[in-house]
Amino acid sequence: MIRTCVTSSGGLRADLNGDGTADEVSPASAPRAGTDSGLRITFGATHGPDTSVTPEQLVGDRGDHPVTVSAAVADFDRDGWLDLFIAATGKTWGDDPIDPAVSELRLGPFSSRGRGQSDHHVDLSEPRAAGVADYNHDRYPDLAAYEYDGDGQHSVRARLGGPKGLEGKQTASDLPYTSGAQQGAVPTPDSMPAPSLRNFYPPCEEKGKG
Questions:
Q1: Would 73 be classed as within a structural domain?
Q2: Is the bond preceding 109 in cis, omega lying within 30 degrees of 0?
Q3: Which domain holds residue 27?
Q4: Sign (positive/negative) of CA torsion 122, 24, 51, 77?
Q5: With a threshold of 0.85, does the pTM exceed it?
Q6: Is the C or the N end of the chain the one with fewer CB within 10 Å?
Q7: pLDDT tens readout for residues 133-184
Q8: Tens of pLDDT along 81-111?
Q9: Comparing C-alpha atoms, which of 22, 23, 29 is closest to residue 42?
Q10: Nearest alpha-carbon partner for 69 in 91, 36, 98, 93
Q11: Does residue 31 have a cis peptide bond before it, meaning omega lies within 30 degrees of 0?
Q12: In angstroms, rounded to a whole number, what is the distance separating the alpha carbons of residues 166 and 127?
C-alpha cells in the first residue's frame, strides 16, 4: 500500500482510488493553501495518461451549476484510505442561508468521478469553503467549514473527525471551535484555520534521496 505523505508543495501523495498507483492532491493557491480554492487531484495511471480533476468535476449530477464547490481530502476515519468531503452550493438569495445541493463525506477509496465506498451527509449552513484542520490535536483530521448563517453573518465551524469519519449533525464536541468570520470576498477567507496536513502525515521523500 502506498504510504500517504505530504509533498514539498504542501499537498498529499497517496493511493486515492485503490488501484495501487500514486495519486496526488495539489494544494490550493492563496489565501489558504490546502483548502478548496484551486484544489486539484491527479489520479495516476499504470498505463496511459494521468487524470487530473477539480472539485467541480467530482460533485456529480446533484451539484448542477453550483456557484461554490468546496472540497477537502483527508483520512477522517483513520481506516488507511483518504476520504473526500465535498459540498456544492448555489447562488445566495436574500438574507437567509440556502441548503447546499451536495454536502457529504465520501469514504475512500474514491474514484476520479468522486464516487466513494459510501456517502454520508454532513449538515452545513450554506458552506462556501472547506479545509482540513487539527482542532483537538488527536489522531483524527478535522473539517473546517466557512458557512453563511444568514442576515450577513458568517461563521467557521468544526466537524471533528472520528471512527465514523464526520458526524452528520454538529455535536457538543464541535461547538467550542466555532468562531465568527468576516464576510469572504475570496473563495477561502482568512478566518479559516491554516491547513494541518503535516500534523497527520509525514513528508514525502524527495526523488534521489533515501
A1: yes
A2: yes
A3: 5-199
A4: negative
A5: yes
A6: C
A7: 999 999 999 999 999 998 888 899 999 999 999 999 999 999 999 988 877 6
A8: 999 999 999 887 778 999 999 999 999 999 9
A9: 23
A10: 36
A11: yes
A12: 15
Under a CB-based contact definition with an 8 Å cutoff, are residues 44 and 53 in contact?
A: no
Which amino acid, 204?
C
Which residue is listed with cell 505523505?
5
Q: Residue 50 and residue 155: Cα distance in Å, rounded? A: 37
Q: Is the alpha carbon torsion for 50, 8, 27, 120 positive or negative?
A: positive
Q: What is the DSSP letter of 101?
A: S
What total number of domains does the chain contain?
Answer: 1
CB 112 within 8 A of CB 43: yes
* 204 is a domain residue: no
> Which residues, at least 6 apart from 160, have a Cβ–Cβ distance to it below 8 Å?
135, 136, 140, 142, 166, 167, 171, 173, 174, 177
